[in-house]
Each structure stands twice: as structure tokens, then as C-alpha cells.
Specification:
Blueprint lengths: L10 E5 L12 E4 L4 E4 L12 E8 L2 E5 L5 E8 L5 E5 L5 E8 L2
Length: 104
């Protein structure tokens, strides 16, 4: 019998990637257990693609996120073996890497 363990996105995450393409994504974000997320750092001059909204894990490799423009986007997501880091594939050239800083 093959049991697939569900990976959890719940917690507070800090962006550790420093790419030109990831500037419109928050440096710190929280995903809660009720399917909501919120950017925790909101400089007034930056309009984030992800600011506040809903998310849904589709499986251990895909997440759907409601964006600031109200569009729901699907992203491939990959977790490190110990689930302390995750990488969102925005497109073929842009990858966001976040490190988990808190679980609740």
C-alpha cells in the first residue's frame, strides 16, 4: 500500500530568493489553516501579486492562490525534504523560494 503524506503550507514564511522577477511577491507571508493567506510586510510603494486572499493546496505539488487582481493562479510548488523551504514556480524563468519561520 502506497501512502502519500500531505505536505503542509500552514505557517509563516520568509522569502529567501533574491531575483528580479520576485519583487512583486511579499518578503514575509502567512498561510493559515482556514485557507487564507496574508502578506505580512506591506510597503506602501509596492503592489504585491499576493497581498491577501485565499489559497488551496491541490496536492503536494500544486497550489492555487487568489491574487491581488482577483485572478486565481495555479503554481507548481516543491517542498524541501524537511518541509522547511518551499519553491513556487511562477513561470519557467521565475522561482520564489521561501523558508518556514513559524508553524502554528
Amino acid at each position: 500500500m502506497n501512502k502519500t503524506r500531505t505536505v503542509s503550507i500552514i505557517g509563516i514564511w520568509l522569502k529567501i530568493s533574491k531575483n528580479e522577477c520576485d519583487k512583486s511577491y511579499p518578503a514575509k507571508i502567512i498561510f493559515d489553516e482556514n485557507g487564507f493567506y496574508q502578506a505580512l510586510d506591506k510597503p506602501e510603494s509596492v503592489v504585491y501579486t499576493w497581498n491577501v486572499g485565499t489559497y488551496e493546496m491541490k496536492d503536494n505539488a500544486k497550489i492555487q492562490v487568489s491574487c491581488a487582481n482577483d485572478k486565481i493562479e495555479s503554481y507548481k510548488i516543491k517542498f524541501s525534504r524537511d518541509e522547511s523551504e518551499c519553491t513556487f514556480n511562477i513561470d519557467k524563468q521565475c522561482h520564489l523560494v521561501y523558508k518556514r519561520v513559524n508553524i502554528f
